[in-house]
Amino acid sequence: MRPFVELTDVSHTYATGATLAVDGLNLKVNEGEFAAVVGPSGCGKSTLMKLATGLQFPQKGAVVVDGREVTAPVKIAGMAFQAPTLLPWRTTLENLMLPLEIVEPHRSRLRRHKAEYVEKAEALLESVGLKDAGSKFPWQLSGGMQQRSSLCRALIHEPKLLMLDEPFGALDAFTREELWCVIRDLHARGNFTVILVTHDLREATFLADRIFCMSSRPGRIIAEREVGFARPRDLELTYTQEFSAIVHDLRARIAEARTTA
Ligand SMILES: Nc1ncnc2c1ncn2[C@@H]1O[C@H](COP(=O)(O)OP(=O)(O)OP(=O)(O)O)[C@@H](O)[C@H]1O
Questions:
Q1: For the ABC transporter domain, which residue ranges apply (predicted)?
Q2: What is the distance in A from the centroid of ligand 1 to the CA of 142?
Q3: Suppose 20 and one of 48, 88, 133, 218 were both cysteines; which one would form an S-S bond, judging by CB atoms 3.0 to 4.6 Å apart?
Q4: How many CB atoms lie under 10 A from the CB of residue 224?
Q5: CB of 51 within 8 A of CB of 27?
Q6: Strand, helix or coil at 24?
Q7: Per-residue CA distances from 119 to 97, 147, 259 (Å)
C-alpha cells in the first residue's frame, strides 16, 4: 500500500501568540486506510488537519498528499467538523450541492448535468437514512440528521481524502454510535482515505485501522497502533475484552502524554 498522506518532521508555529503547535511531527497514512488521531486537548490535532489539507503550511518539514507536496488547499479533500455548518437558507439538498458549485470538474458540468448531480445527492442522502430530508432546511433536522447531511456534503464531490475533525463530538452517545455505523458503511462502500480527529477513544478504536496518539503541545506522534479487528465491525465489538484492552492502552498513553508535558 502506498502512503497517501505523509507528514515528515513537520513543525508549525502560529504567528498569533507565537504558539509552537506541532514539532517533529511524523505521520504516514496509507491509501484507503481509516486513520484516527487522538491526544490531549490543545496538542495540535486540528493543526495537523489544517497542515494535511493545505489550510496552513509548516515552517519546517514536508507534507505530501497523494504523491504531491502540499503548497495550496488540497482539492481532493472533503471535510466535516463538530458543527455541521450547513447554510440555514439552503435546503439540505442545496447544501449538499455546495462543493459542486466550487470544485472542478463539477463546477463546469453542474449547469448542464444538474439532474445527474441531484440524483447522486439524493442517493447519498438515502444511503445515510435521510431519504426525505433533501427538501427540508437544516433547522428542520435533528442534530444527528444535520451531521449526516454534513458527511454527505463532504463526500458529494467524491474526495480521495476525507478529514473529520470531531464530527460526532456534539451528539448524544446513542446518536454518535449510529453515526459511527454510517461513516463505517460510507468508508466500506467508497474509495477514500479517512483521517479522523477525536477525543473519543472508543470511537477511534471502533472505526480506525490505525490510531496515532499525540503528545501534549507541541504535538508529535508518541504512539501508533494498528487495530486489526475484521470488517465489517459491529457495535457488539465495543463490549469485548479485546476492544476494552485497546481503549485502556490508549487512555494510559494519553494520560502519560498529559503528565509529561
Ligand atoms: N489560528 C490560530 N492562531 C493562533 N494559535 C492557534 C491557532 N489555531 C490553534 N492555535 C493554537 O495552537 C495550539 C494547538 O491547537 P489545535 O486546535 O491544533 O489543538 P487541538 O489538539 O485540535 O485542540 P482541542 O483538542 O482542544 O480541539 C493551541 O495552543 C491553540 O491555541
A1: 5-241
A2: 29
A3: 218
A4: 13
A5: no
A6: strand
A7: 11, 20, 52
| pTM, two decimal places | 0.92
Q: Is the CB of 16 under 6 A from ligand 1?
A: yes
Show the cell assigned to 69: 507536496
Pocket lining: 12 vs ligand 1, CB cutoff 6 Å: no
Nearest protein CA to atom 12 of ligand 1, as residue: 21
Question: Is the model's pLDDT at 17 over the cut of 80?
Answer: no
Decide whether any atom of ligand 1 lies within 6 Å of the 41 Cβ: yes
| pLDDT tens string 78-91 | 888 888 889 999 99
Q: What is the whole-number distance in angstroms between the Cα of residue 48 and the centre of ligand 1?
A: 10
Query: Domains along the chain?
Result: 1-41+55-76+164-170+197-260 (3.40.50.300), 88-159 (no CATH)
Atom of ligand 1 at shortest range from CA of 43: 21
Distance of CA 134 to the CA centre of its chain: 23
Q: Ligand 1 mean position to 57 CA, how many Å?
A: 14
Q: Cell triple for residue 36?
A: 484516527
Q: What is the pLDDT of residues 182-198, one digit of tens each?
A: 899 999 998 899 999 99
Q: Cα dihedral sign for 260, 164, 200, 7?
A: negative
* Phi, then psi, of 70 in degrees rounded to 5: -80, 115
Which atom of ligand 1 is nearest to 166's Cα?
27
